[in-house]
Every structure is written in C-alpha cells, then in structure tokens.
C-alpha cells in the first residue's frame, strides 16, 4: 500500500529547512537535516472544509479518535486496532479550580485510554501506518507508555503483527508487565532512555521494522493531537484560555498545538489557547532551551516522573515553536510537588494519575502562583497517564494503610484515634 494517495494530506514538510516530501508511511526525518529534520504533515484544509463539518461530526456515533478521520494521515480503509482509543472524559472540577486559585478548570483523564495513557492515540496511528508500509513488526524505545500502547494496539490486531520493545531497565514494573501481557518482545536495556533510544534506532534500521518512535515518525504527533481536538469538541468548540501538558520529548504538546491549529484552519474554533508545558526539575532540557533561547543541551534523567525523563528530547523544536506561537510558557515542578499533586488530585477528584500524568496540573499551581496564569483565565489540563502503572511512586505519595489484627477492640481504638 506504500505510496497510496491520502485524500487530505498534501505533503510532509521539514520544520528545519522547509523541504517537502511525499507522505509515504516510511518517510521519517528529512534526509538533508538529519535529527533536526522533523517532518510535519501538511493538510489540504480547503478540501477538508468542503467535505466535512461539525454536523457530520455530531452525527457520527464513533467516540474514538477515528471520528476525526479527515484530520488524520491515514488511508481510511486500512484495518485499525480494535481497542477504543480516545473519547476520554473531560471533567469540570470546581474543587481543584479553587485549590489552584483559578475560576475554571477542566481535567481530561487520558489515563482512561485502553492501555492507560495518551500514547494510545499515537500508537493506533503507528499500527495503521505500518500496515500501509506493508510491515508487520513495529518497534519503539519507550519509558513504558509508548511501548504498552503499541503492544496493546498490536495485540488487538489478533496475531497479525508483532511489537518489539526497548525499555530502560528503570521502567516501572507495571508498564513492563503490561508489555509482557500484551505479548510483545521486551528488551530491557541496562542504560538511560537515551541509550535505549539509540539502540532501538540501530535495530529498527538494521532489521527493517516499522519505526514507532515519535522522535522520528511524523505521523505519531497526528494521533497525539486528537487530545486537544477532543477537548475542543467537548467544550462545544469554545476553547479555554490555557491548555496544559506535561512535556518529555515534546511531541505531545506539539501535537496539542497541531490539533487546535487544524481546527482553526477548518473554521471549527475561533480562538487558539495558550500552551503551558510542564517539565520536571530533574530533567528539564526543553524548559531550559525555551527560557534561555538557546539550542537544546542534553541533561541527565533524574526524576520520579519516568515518562517525562527524556534527557535528549528530539521534538523540542516543534514543542518550543508551538508554545511560542501560542504565546504560552513553560514551567518546572519538583518531584515533591508531583507527589503532592498525585495525592491532592486523587483525593479531590477520584482521578489517579502517574507522576508524569499529574505534572501538568502541578505546573498550573506554580503558574498561577507566578502570575503566568491569571485567576480569571480558564484552563484545561490533560492527565496523561494512569497512576496504576506506577504503584511504587504512588506509595511514596500516600504511605501505607493502617494495619491491625482482626480484633474489634483494636479496630475501635484505631477509629477513635482517627476521629471516625
Ligand atoms: C504519561 C505521560 N505524560 C507525558 C508524556 C510526555 O509526552 P512527550 O514525551 O511527547 O512530551 C509522556 C510521554 O511518554 C507520558 O507517557
Ligand atoms: N516517554 C515516552 C517516550 C517515547 O514516546 P513517543 O510517543 O514520544 O515515541 C514513552 O511513553 O515511552
């Protein structure tokens, strides 16, 4: 199927040199610019506008990402993973808004995607693109979520395809177990994420597997963008003032911008939001480059928020460009602030996010305190991953339960001590 024309995609454009390429499934980076030659999918917005409108969308009962097909870079007839990806809930939370010092806050729980993170949105696209390329082995390097989403989405194809996964050995056991349950070949690398990534690239290139690394593959950001498209639709096309995401490689927040940019181009929304990108203090190379206006300097990966522990992000240019275009900002949070927020969010909303999943909302607190976000501004934040994936860190946030012998007297004493 390689080379089949995509109805609404014009070209792939290099964000560094502007060179255009035919949108082939295996056209990864711009060959002239190497690692900096990240490609962007360019759509024919006029054609989309002629063929598709809000009424069509309203009439479509499919709650998954495939409801946005004209804005996705795939051939509609290619078989899709059967898991329900996307359509995650958006809650308005008065309690959390008050705690953060703002009037309006929306929480999108992307941890309710089928494998527990926003990454399902990207991996579902990768599974489709691999088939369009005629490849049945798909591989990636991952801190865990990209991997589990790829493995799960591939498993849903029923033995048609295989996932080969490279994870750093520090990946949380919950995420690694998910991979094994989904039947992936799992390679646990004794090294950093950067070393793991490098190894995966070498293997993918040598073996000719389909590359699901969003640092390389321009189609994955197109899946990630569906989170902001969903937010817009869930808010009846009235965009909030701020969209907030945690940032590792930078692809997710770049995708969020692409989503709202697309919607503006086809006239579905009038207002674009500002983006707030949140990194962890222990690994914040993109914030550093954004604030100082310098090129990216790789850093060690030293944070409990493993999913955003990316020492040498590859999508930083796209992310910084998106945040700047939006008139947005970046901020860092400490591991302790992340742990505190896991607890606060869980206790006040019933949403359980993994550390990277709640880094965004921890960043809102700081951004309000620093005057970046005004109390009158409306904010939507995506909780990007489910807390059940990383119980060890969740335990650090909440400690252990009360323990007792099966004895009524002891129970009574304990309850009295805790005023119950
Ligand atoms: C839970 C979670 N949050 C945030 C991110 C950050 O996304 P990106 O690396 O695209 O910036 C990731 C990436 O894996 C993630 O898994
Ligand atoms: N932290 C990410 C890194 C890779 O994800 P990708 O979607 O940017 O390729 C993860 O989930 O593994």
From TrEMBL:
The keyword Amino-acid biosynthesis applies. InterPro entries: Ser/Thr_Dehydratase, Thr_synthase-like, Thr_Synthase_bac/arc, TrpB-like_PALP, TrpB-like_PALP_sf. CDD domains: Thr-synth_1. It comes from the Bacteria. Its EC number is 4.2.3.1. Keywords: Amino-acid biosynthesis, Lyase, Pyridoxal phosphate, Threonine biosynthesis. Residues 83-385 form the Tryptophan synthase beta chain-like PALP domain. Pathway: Amino-acid biosynthesis; L-threonine biosynthesis; L-threonine from L-aspartate: step 5/5. Its cofactor is pyridoxal 5'-phosphate. NCBIfam families: thrC (TIGR00260). Catalyzes the gamma-elimination of phosphate from L-phosphohomoserine and the beta-addition of water to produce L-threonine. This is Threonine synthase. It comes from Petrotoga olearia.
């Amino acid at each position: 199927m390689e080379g089949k024309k995509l109805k609404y995609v014009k070209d792939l454009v290099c964000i560094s040199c502007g060179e255009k390429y035919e949108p082939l499934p295996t056209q990864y980076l711009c060959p002239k610019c190497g690692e900096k030659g990240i490609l962007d999918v360019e759509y024919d917005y006029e054609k989309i506008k002629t063929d598709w409108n809000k009424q069509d969308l309203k009439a479509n009962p499919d709650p998954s990402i495939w409801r946005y097909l004209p804005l996705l870079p795939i051939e509609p007839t290619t078989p899709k993973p059967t898991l329900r990806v996307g359509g995650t809930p958006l809650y308005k939370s008065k309690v959390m808004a008050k705690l953060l010092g703002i009037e309006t806050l929306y929480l999108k729980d992307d941890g309710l995607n089928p494998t527990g993170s926003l990454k399902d949105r990207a991996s579902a696209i990768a599974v489709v693109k691999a088939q369009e390329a005629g490849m049945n082995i798909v591989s990636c390097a991952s801190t865990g979520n990209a991997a589990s989403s790829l493995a799960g989405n591939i498993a849903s194809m029923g033995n048609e395809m295989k996932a080969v996964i490279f994870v750093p050995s520090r990946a949380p056991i919950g995420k690694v177990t998910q991979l094994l349950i989904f039947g992936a070949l799992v390679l646990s690398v004794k090294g950093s994420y950067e070393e793991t990534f490098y190894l995966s690239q070498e293997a993918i290139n040598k073996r000719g597997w389909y590359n699901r690394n969003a640092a390389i593959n321009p189609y994955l950001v197109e899946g990630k963008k569906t989170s902001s498209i969903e937010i817009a639709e869930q808010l009846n096309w009235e965009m909030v003032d701020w969209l907030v995401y945690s940032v590792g490689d930078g692809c997710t927040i770049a995708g969020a911008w692409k989503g709202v940019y697309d919607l503006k181009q086809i006239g579905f929304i009038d207002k674009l939001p500002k983006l707030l990108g949140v990194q962890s203090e222990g690994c914040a190379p993109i914030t550093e480059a954004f604030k100082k206006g310098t090129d990216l300097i790789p850093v060690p990966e030293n944070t409990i928020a493993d999913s955003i522990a990316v020492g040498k992000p590859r999508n930083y240019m796209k992310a910084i460009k998106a945040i700047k275009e939006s008139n947005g900002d970046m901020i860092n949070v400490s591991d302790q602030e992340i742990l505190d927020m896991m607890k606060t969010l869980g206790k006040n909303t019933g949403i359980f996010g993994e550390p990277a999943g709640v880094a965004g909302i921890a960043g809102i607190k700081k951004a309000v305190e620093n005057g970046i976000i005004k109390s009158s501004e409306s904010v939507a934040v995506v909780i990007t991953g489910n807390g059940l994936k990383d119980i060890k860190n969740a335990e650090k946030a909440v400690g252990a339960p009360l323990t007792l012998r099966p004895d009524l007297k002891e129970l009574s004493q304990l309850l009295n001590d805790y005023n119950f």
